[in-house]
Amino acid sequence: MNKGIYIATLEPNSGKSIISLGLMRTLLGKTAKVGYFRPIIDDSKSTGKDNHISTVLSFFDIKLDYEDAYAFTSSQLIKKRNKGKSGEILDTIITKYKNLEDRFDFVLVEGSDFTGEGSVFEFDTNVLIAKNLGLPVILVGSGVNKTEDELMGSLQIAYTSFLERDVSVLAVVANKVQEENLMVAKNGLSNFLPDSVEVFAIPYTEKLAHPTIKEIVEELDGEVLFGAEFLDNQTGNFGVGAMQLRNYLTHLKQDSLVITPGDRADIILGALQANISTNYPRISGIILTGGLKPEEPILQLIQGLSQIVPIVSVNDGTFSVTNRVGNIKSKIYASSKPKIETSLTVFSKEVSFDKLIERLINLKPKGITPRMFQYGLMKRARTAKKHIVMPEGTDDRILTAAIQLVELDIVQITLLGEIEKVKEKAVQLGLVLDLEKITVINPVQSEHFDDYVETFYELRKHKNVNRDIARDWMADVSYYGTMMIYKGHADGMVSGAAHTTQHTIRPALQFIKTKPGVSVVSSVFFMCLEDRVSVFGDCAINPNPSATELAEIAISSAESSLAFGIEPKIAMLSYSSGTSGKGADVDRVREATEIVKKERPDLKIEGPIQYDAAVDAAIGKSKLPDSEVAGQASVLIFPDLNTGNNTYKAVQRETGALAIGPMLQGLNKPVNDLSRGCTIEDVFNTVIITAIQAQGFN
Length: 698
Hints:
Blueprint: E1 4-9, H1 16-28, E2 34-41, H2 51-59, E3 70-73, H3 74-82, H4 86-103, E4 106-110, H5 122-133, E5 137-142, H6 148-164, E6 169-177, H7 182-192, E7 198-203, H8 206-209, H9 213-220, E8 223-226, E9 237-240, H10 245-248, E10 256-261, H11 265-276, E11 283-289, H12 296-303, E12 311-313, H13 318-326, H14 337-350, H15 354-360, H16 370-384, E13 387-390, H17 396-407, E14 412-416, H18 419-429, E15 438-441, H19 449-460, H20 467-474, H21 477-486, E16 492-495, H22 501-512, E17 522-528, E18 533-537, H23 547-563, E19 569-573, H24 584-599, E20 604-609, H25 611-615, H26 617-623, E21 635-637, H27 641-655, E22 658-665, E23 671-673, H28 680-695
Parallel strand pairs: 1-4, 1-5, 2-3, 2-4, 5-6, 6-7, 9-10, 10-11, 11-12, 13-14, 13-16, 14-15, 16-23, 18-21, 19-20, 19-21
Antiparallel strand pairs: 8-12, 17-18, 17-22
Helix pairs in contact: 1-14, 6-7, 16-28, 17-28, 19-20, 21-22, 23-24
């Protein structure tokens, strides 16, 4: 059974990192444990560690020691080859790879970089390693400075070389191709490859080509004067500040790197002021040349500014510095989160390895892991691309998550708020707000406003709501967003980052209302633990549910569990297990359990049961040996809000679990409430589950 795949290239700077990152994320969505291995790495001059390994292990949190992730450095390989020890080289590589194969469900193997002394031999070495490891290959070639014939010719020769060694090539990727030539590249590959080989073309991406300030500092051996915490800023382009300030400002572009002599205080201060002005693009940093530094009063002025960028002093002259910056071959470091996210976004748009992975992976891990769960969520949400309205358009977290979601092409987004304020906030955050992809609506200026007011009036006039009151309420973003759903102008809503739970839910209860047969709106969290995903309910809405309400919460939670691919095994939690406990609280849980058994005999349920007996196999077996749920519960229903809310937060904080939610259940249309302490990741995940919920309301 195959347990690995090999990414190979035929040249330096092919951009295969984007394939490694994208493929690793795809694999982690399909199988629980994925290892990473590089048979040959470059000799690192600065950190002493291979950048590819550090980035992948760190970003994907792979439990693997650095030393286990490679076999030889380039210099070690050359020494052994020169001593005639090629057999020893292969033996070591095979042994290290097999050790990983035993530890992981699947292993991603990345070939060498062609940048060392022995690069002339590296292609043949990669073919030989892939053959001896028995791994199929993904072949990557770069289109930079190549004609179509040159790119196709080099890839065809490389493909034939693997084929002649009986190494299977599963996919060929033409990377760094100009956008307008993507289809030309795909057609060119299809002309000489059989149908069994997948073909892809990835566009040249400026963001990945430009270095970070950190890379520039290392290349120029610079001294960081200010902004050391922003060294991962991504440069967009660079220009020399040699002209007068009024002329230089017109040359600034997004993420410009300013290069200027250290005594040009006017350029330095002008660039910093432009950086915080909404009328000019953001700059990424300032390089001061000639070994000159600003005078003390200027340094004090800079130090007191509210916003800063890295300011770096270098000894070389402006001409030399400009040439050296232009020649930097940018890499993706573990700390380069923007570059990693860009790589994953580009991969997601241009490459689909799902069919290929299905052919590779035959193992079926028990249960569902957090990585598999999250991957599945994104994939399901993308299939329908539902329209989600987010009322808090000027909130940093909302705006950032919204842009990430549309860039990944997962959902359609409408933000509510004054458009100029939303645009201003995007500029402050250094975000690119594409108004062709994200709709921004000011409710009172909307073409639907009067219609929404009239609709709300008709729905609520029996509650003494007149048209003036309706107009006031409809100016509220929560009411307007909810009305969008009611009228079919959006599929779901996510709010609560800056509003209370009551503010978010009240309009939904007034006119979205609950599903037929449902009397209780409740919530669940998807708790992504280290080795499983559990459903916790209700941890956000109902303070002290009755036995009937608790039973309804359990049934709704089981249905939510099923809808998201988790087999429901319901544990009705209490302070005692089985029949031993007495008292009103445990009796209420016992009664709720009996109601569920009567109304839904198809569901597996146990209660009352303690938390440890519900999730720990040994304890569950000892306390309730005949139970189908004890020790393996996937849906945990808490007896009250106090217990549920504190437990989910304790589990989240103490174990590092990812808590996705709360997801509201029981409404006719999906409306979900965020915590005011939510993170960007919380917003991102909540929008995705809302989009999936919306698929069930078609």
